[in-house]
Amino acid sequence: MPTPKKAPKIRRGIPKIRAKQFFSERIIDTFAVQLKAFVPVVMNKPFFDSKSTLLALFLIVLASAFSPVFASEGEGHEEKAPFNASEVILHHVKDDHQWHIADWLVVPLPIIVYSEEKGLDVFSSNRFYDEHHNEIEYNGYKLEHDHITLAESGKSVFDISITKNVLMLLITAALMFYVFLSVAKGAKNNYGKAPKGVQSFFEPIIIFVRDEIVKPNIGHHYERFLPYMLTLFFFILFGNLLGLLPGAGNLTGNIAVTMTLAVLTFLITNFNGKKTYWGHIFWTPGVPLPLRIVILPVEIIGMFTKPFSLMIRLFVAITAGHIVLLALICLTFIFGSYYVGFGSSIIVLFINLIELLVAGIQAYVFTMFSSMYIGMAVEEGHDH
Amino acid sequence: MDLLTPGPGLVIWQLFVFILLVLLLGKLAWKPILTSLKEREESIQQALDSAENAKKEMASLKEDNEKLLRETRDERDKILRDARTAANRIHDDAQANAKKNADRLIEDAKSIIQTEKNAALREVKEQVAMFSLDIAEKLIKKNLSDDKSQKELANTFIKDLKLN
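Predict the joint structure of the above. Result:
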């Protein structure tokens, strides 16, 4: 009996290593690509004198937010095409129909569009570009500012393409699926034993989410909401962390994603609303009658501001972090100097560390507030 | 796709994938993980409880043992004390008895001695009287063995008689 049990374990080990190698190669590749893109720009530039280096470092420390201003005023005039930092940053932060990892590595993504005139169409995003990377029309579709329209009428089509963020979404989901199925398998295999490996890494986080976020905020019916809350927490966490990888898409910093999550929380909150919850909204206890005219609209607006704040908070926290990082990196290209590159790299390193912290905090905060809203909704009546 | 306007395509994908993820993970991952966590917590709690119980049991057992030991020691002391008092009493009784017996014996001896002495004295007196009679007889016999002495005696008696 033991030999057939052992055999699949060995077989399973090999793709793991392959996946790891593939992953690290990919990361190294993207780093290398960035370095390759970075070095020629720096090499072409004359060194700054010490005075302007000091000034540059000072400016970096002062504010990265001003970098778009520098972009127009900076010394990039000698370049063939002026370097537009805000365009680069927004391009990185926003969704895209192709995955632009490096200038020489652009992964075309499938485009899926539907229009009443032409029905459902699936084709590669490469079709929108000729061999010189110029935008062209394809099959009556036109790509304008990442927006697909019908070439003749200019009407927009219903676009459910696998964009960069959809791909990130699928990668995040697949990773979560893989990770938590391994944890579940570990839980099953190590039944009655101490946890091992990936299981012992994630179990404390799961316990943290259960005991520190969901249980205290929802109360004794918390178990019903645990699957949603755990998925929410880890989806945001994984999305945030994956989004920090070089070349990755900004999934959790996309307002469509945060909106969907906020709407799900909103729906769960209101579908589980008990008598006390609705009583608080429509007939707030302890309020004199004339004031009710004021309170009622405020309470109803409050129902919607809660998910709205969830949506905005996550979107802003992640997107702002990405913008700060990219702005600091762009400084190098704006000034075209080794010194600025060195200085901004150091600051980028620390901002990256902060972003790692923010990734966890935002996952925590989103889950905690979702639990709180649901907790308020499912609260059983108590006396005032 | 602008930064602030949610793209409908991504919304649909996100909704679809996320709900699928919640359902699949809920069934395949969260349920077994949470059950195993709960069971583990319970088993740890149980182990702790039973350890605590065992500790308590041990403590009570030890207490019982000590109590038993203490009781035994007390009993032993009591027995010893009793034995000692009993021994003392027996000893005293024996002494008192012996003394009484001795006293009585001495008393008896004294009275016997007294009677024996009296008897002896009486016998001595009788013997002395007999001896005196014998002696007197012998003296008389000797003194009156010849006629002259008889005459002398008779003369002495006559002289005495004359004086009277």
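Chain B has a mean pLDDT of 90.
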